Structures are given as structure tokens and as C-alpha cells.
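pasting for ref
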Amino acid sequence: MHIYLFVQRCLETLISFLKVAIKTKFIGLKFPQQTGTCIVLANGPSLRNTFESHMDLLKKHTLFCVNGFSLTPEYELLKPGNYVLLDTSFWLAKDHDGVNAMINSIISKTDWEMNLYLPFAAR
């Protein structure tokens, strides 16, 4: 059963990435060139284990964080250089309290240069 759930979640993640790639329009955008290894900090229960086991590694590489990462204590500690907002609730939610808390957290805590990426649909 665990293998089935793992495979199912991997497929759902792949489909989600494909949807983002298809729906995102990067026409005319110039992305800052970044070299070397990058690490994507996707929110979830396993991320806690990553913080506990690999904090030194995370501090050495370019980081991409997603969605509500600014609400964690690790946000200010790791100072990610890239923030990706993909969850449609950030621009479609009827209850904006959680979204406002996350946006205010980014604004108040970020005292370093950071790239913010939003899908075209969020315009």
C-alpha cells in the first residue's frame, strides 16, 4: 500500500508540474542566471526531516521555496533566493486571511534580494 501511495503521489506531482509548464507563459521574461545546484523546498512533512538532517547542505546551494514557506522559522534562517507561488488559492481564495498572512510574512521578513515567481494566471 505504501508503494502504491508513493507512485500515486509521484504521478500527481508530475501532472501538476506539467500543468504549470503548459499554463505558464514566460514570453518576454528574463530570468536571472543561476549556476550550480539548486534545491526546491516543497512544503510537507518530510521537509522537517530535511531541516534536521541537511541544514548545512541547504545553506550552501541556491534555494527555491514555494507557497507558505515564509510562515516557517526556517525562512529567515535559510534566506531563499527564489520564491515560487503556484497554489491558486493565493489569487482565487475567498478567505484572504491566510494569504495575507503569508504575503505580509514575505514583506516583513525578507531583508535580502529574492526573485518572486508567479504564474501568468495570477495577473
